[in-house]
């Protein structure tokens, strides 16, 4: 198996280059994105997860990635890794296996950070795109698609994107074999890399050195540095989209604008393609609309089932309240330890319906995979729960539902 590493800033065209190289090869090829190996923090609440620094290399689990690559090298399949950009949690698919390919492409902003993984690479490619182009792509995307203003873009760029790029990413060019300019659509670079990989694949298949030119009319090289270098550039780190949440809250668009879309096998799109392909705008908008429709559907199902759940809890609360109201309080009035226990039991009966309402509605909320970070949306769901509970009590009182209050031994209180 031949391993190719692609590194560079966001906006440089890493995913586009990886996809076009894979399309140009006549052998099996798998693309794995580094974002699928973000460390998982399910124990942290959502508000703390969105404040983590997703740009630093320490946020990636390089040990896990290294072990997976080693498994593929030894002919063993690995489970599909993924990441949920909406909830900032891992979204692996353990039932879906990735079989060892002939060419494995690893791409990410810190792809050259771990020397163990670098040592396994047959070819290391670093992408250069002029800093002005990278910044213009980001401004265009954030304003046109995400409705952000220039102040938020500038703040995020100065606080997270630029420092990480200058500290880590621009230095990775020293580890690269190829330096590619003009982004992922550089046809000359794609042809040269494709020819080089085809040569390597043929050599592995036949156990000998393949001819220098493996594909007609395509240049091949065993000296990857033959591709021209380009001036040092300044770009952005792809996962800084996660930091957008610190400015605007939960942004589900990041899930669909990402190059992985919850899968470590990159078979669609490019995180930087909004600046390269105009038709990507409509594609992302369509995916985002589908996401919104699915979320609305889950919300409606939650409201439907919670109505039945909370109706039952309201009836249960009336039953317990009737039992407490008609309880013989003689033991409690007598004093002593038994009186304390008896009073505690009655208080527990009063609180139990409330505890069950919180527990069951929380489970129902999780079961339908809802994730509302804005407080007003959560407040609406709480209002709905209270509406059902109070509405049930009113129906029992005003319309004698289920025999009215007298059926729960509460007739003396409510005049029934």
Report on this structure.
The chain is an alpha/beta fold. 50% of the residues lie in helices and 10% in strands. The chain has 15 helices and 9 strands. The chain has helices spanning 14-24, 46-49, 62-73, 115-119, 131-144, 150-167, 187-206, 240-243, 245-248, 253-257, 279-325, 330-334, 337-367, 375-399, 411-414; strands spanning 2-8, 29-33, 78-80, 83-84, 89-90, 93-98, 103-108, 123-128, 178-181. The strands form 3 sheets. A 5-stranded parallel β-sheet has the order 2-7-1-8-9, covered by helices on one side. A two-stranded antiparallel ribbon has the order 3-6. A hairpin with a 4-residue loop joins strand 4 and strand 5 (89-90). The protein is elongated and about 90 Å long. The relative contact order is 0.14.
Brief sketch in words of this structure:
By secondary structure, the protein is α/β, with parallel strands linked by helices. Helices cover 50% and strands 10% of the residues. The strands form 3 sheets. Strands 2-7-1-8-9 form a 5-stranded parallel beta sheet, with helices on one face.
Task: Please give a handful of descriptors for the protein shown.
single chain, 416 residues, alpha/beta, 5-stranded parallel β-sheet, two-stranded antiparallel ribbon, 15 helices, 9 strands, 50% helix, elongated
Backbone structural class:
alpha/beta
Strand residue content: 5-15%
Which regions contain 5 or more consecutive residues with pLDDT less than 50?
Answer: 209-263, 265-281
Radius of gyration: 29 Å
Percent helix: 40-55%
Q: What is the 3D shape?
A: elongated
Say how many strands there are.
9
What's the order of the H and E elements? EHEHHEEEEEHEHHEHHHHHHHHH
Largest sheet: 5 strands, parallel
Mean of pLDDT = 75
Q: How far apart are the first and last residues' alpha carbons, in Å?
A: 81 Å
Task: Figure out the total of helices.
Answer: 15
> Order of strands side by side in the largest beta sheet?
2-7-1-8-9
